[in-house]
Fold:
Amino acid sequence: MQLLNASGCLDALTAPDVARSLDAFVTKTVTPEPREGNPPPRIAETDHGMLNAIGLANPGRQAFLGQTLPRLARELGPVWVSVGGFRAGDYAETCEQLARDEVACVELNLSCPNVDEAPESAAEVVGACRAATALPLYAKLSPHAWDIGETVRAVEAAGADGISLVNTLRGTALDARLRPRLARGAGGYSGPALRPVALAAVAAARRATRLPIVGMGGVSTGRDVLELVACGASHVALGTVLFADPDAPSRVRAELRRELDELALATVEDAFCAALELVVKAEN
Amino acid sequence: MSRPGRERRRVVAVEPVGPYALVRLERGMLDPGNPGQFFMVEAPGRVLPRPMSLCLAPKGELAFLLDPIGPGTRALAALEPGERVHVFGPLGNGFRLDVPRPLLVGGGIGVAPLPYLSEALERPPAVLGFRSEHHAEAAALVPNAEVVIDPVLVTDALPEGRDVLACGPEPMLEAVRALVPDAQLAWEAPMACGFGACYGCVVEVDGELKRLCVEGPVLCSS
Ligand SMILES: Cc1cc2nc3c(=O)[nH]c(=O)nc-3n(C[C@H](O)[C@H](O)[C@H](O)COP(=O)(O)OP(=O)(O)OC[C@H]3O[C@@H](n4cnc5c(N)ncnc54)[C@H](O)[C@@H]3O)c2cc1C
Ligand SMILES: Cc1cc2nc3c(=O)[nH]c(=O)nc-3n(C[C@H](O)[C@H](O)[C@H](O)COP(=O)(O)O)c2cc1C
Ligand code: FES
Structure:
């Protein structure tokens, strides 16, 4: 089991120590053109999570490949690159250009709630990228789909090597005068409130595939990591928790060791075996 | 530059200052940083910490002045001595102190960073504006301060030919900038992380959206 950051939740160039405390670093989503992102205010805390409408702010493919990626690789070695776009061709072109030693893996962001243009079907995008690169391809899915298993089977058939989930849920929050707190009105809801959603989504994905799954959504403790693994995650990503606690990677690992001792499990992966029965039951 | 640290610190005391609360924490190994820098302070029961300017750095302590306006600041104001909260900082860029004729300008809770700044600049004159006499009790924390109360505004009381260092609500900062184009101004934005990770705190700087926690919070307008 590897511990990663969730895309968009850590800037390795401003906080390299935090990035180094993870097993792998995932970049913020890169789009073909530079994007300034949405106007402020872009974030709002709610009682059990936070909303963000960053809007895929990023320097664009050219600046990423020319400047950001070499600097990242110098600091960290090969990284996971999150790729976004508005047509399958956008994703495929970026994937083609990512064929470099500096890239360990590509995560296709098929699920950003903060941009208006929806990408084509997840499977079409994965298919186009499969044809464009030999790099490992992870499909990052939204928790909104009612039948996650169906999407997972479709992206696997199209050539995905792994699944990442969940991205944020769409949400909104109002201020004292009943106006939206985000300039964009709505945003992506992340943090502790997302955890039950993530557990169910990962379990549904695990029932549909044997591919590796990066589970995420509201993880903030070692116990949370173990629960995601129990539901079928192979790896786990930390998102919103990094904002409140940049020391979370080492803390979570320590908590995980204590949790395993308490449950008399030899390895993290054994947590899945313990839950397997339950997952099979839910299927019938 | 001082290196930010993150530690779980004990609450020494929470003292009322007019409608505000002065939260005094044990300093531990944390560096108080430069005036105008801030710390992310854990707000018990909340998902995200809250950005707070350092107000005072008494021996062995870090003290924050806060206005309890919402769930996070109210949770901080309700801390009891002996409780512990995580504190991360110092973060961001503070005020430049190499100014020959400093004048501190503060409005409302914007006085928060001025006591520590005043100390560093050897007690320069200050002009502070408040909504009421009750709020103006916070002026006692800033030496050599002239106090104005609504409807009189700080911009009505600004002497000329001074290097202005200001913190306060956005309309006040805009008004100060209009009068003193090269003023150093400490801005606010909602922040999730305070260390450049979330891109949530962007503000427009020279026509571009920049992260206030990285570029600021003190920006020079000229
Ligand atoms: C660098 C920096 C330093 C700060 N230093 C201090 C300080 O020393 N003392 C202090 O009391 N406060 C300070 N603040 C502001 C403080 O962080 C916010 O008031 C606090 O986060 C509000 O949280 P809350 O949960 O209490 O209220 P919320 O529910 O988050 O907000 C209550 C109301 O205030 C508005 N609001 C919230 N945050 C901001 C903001 N940052 N800017 C403008 N409006 C906002 C909301 O829209 C809402 O209407 C600072 C902010 C920054 C960015
Ligand atoms: C501020 C912020 C920015 C994000 N940016 C991206 C992004 O650029 N690409 C992406 O695939 N997911 C992005 N996400 C979603 C996260 O990667 C993650 O899927 C989600 O937040 C759930 O995990 P969490 O609850 O642990 O934060 C972002 C989330 C947040 C909070
Ligand atoms: S508060 Fe997160 S980038 Fe500034």
